[in-house]
């Protein structure tokens, strides 16, 4: 009888853990430090937010048959090169590793470039945290991993990212997320 109770209790705990629903994030919500699973074009095959500490993160939700997503790729590449010390762009696709890898190889050949932006593939989790109706769609996390913006292709450009990155340090000091005593005057 004790074994049956222990087994039943253990099963109930496991079921409750598995049944926990991922809730979508809203502006200023903290993003949990989860593992991103499969990632290509990165130094490791997995990653987490800790790997990008100190940088803002731009998540680009896309897929390989999306014309607008493909059209945005040169702009993303340009932004990554321009703001790489403050910003990490990470592409997020629900498609398979092989489909995305094949697409990126074809893209590199067609445009005579080496694509270096990391891409999360076979995603099942991030799409739940950052719900959206269409792609491309973007989410921006600040260096403290708070969701600061979500937007569509029409609002994503170098000027927007540049303005955000320029005001970011002052905002972090004002909100207390960063404590820099050297900025204080006596």
From TrEMBL:
Its recorded name reads Thiol-disulfide isomerase or thioredoxin
The yes or no answer to whether the keyword Methyltransferase is present is no
Q: Which UniProt keywords apply?
A: Isomerase, Signal
Pfam families xrefs: Redoxin (PF08534)
Q: Where is the Thioredoxin domain?
A: 25-170
Record the organism.
Arachidicoccus rhizosphaerae
For this UniProt entry, which residues form the secretion signal? 1-19
Entry superkingdom: Bacteria
Molecular function (GO) terms listed? isomerase activity; oxidoreductase activity
């Amino acid at each position: 009888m004790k074994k049956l109770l222990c087994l039943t209790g253990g099963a109930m705990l496991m079921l409750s853990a598995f049944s926990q629903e991922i809730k979508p994030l809203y502006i200023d919500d903290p993003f949990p430090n989860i593992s991103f699973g499969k990632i290509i074009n990165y130094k490791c095959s997995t990653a987490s937010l800790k790997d990008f500490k100190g940088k803002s993160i731009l998540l680009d939700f896309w897929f390989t048959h999306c014309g607008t997503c493909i059209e945005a790729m040169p702009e993303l590449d340009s932004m990554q090169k321009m703001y790489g010390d403050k910003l990490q762009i990470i592409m997020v696709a629900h498609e398979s590793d092989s489909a995305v890898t094949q697409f990126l190889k074809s893209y590199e050949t067609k445009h005579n470039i080496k694509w270096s932006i990391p891409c999360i593939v076979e995603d099942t989790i991030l799409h739940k945290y950052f719900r959206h109706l269409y792609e491309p769609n973007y989410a921006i996390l600040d260096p403290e991993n708070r969701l600061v913006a979500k937007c569509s292709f029409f609002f994503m450009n170098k000027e927007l990212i540049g303005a955000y990155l320029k005001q970011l340090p002052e905002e972090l000091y004002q909100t207390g997320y960063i404590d820099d005593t050297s900025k204080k005057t006596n």
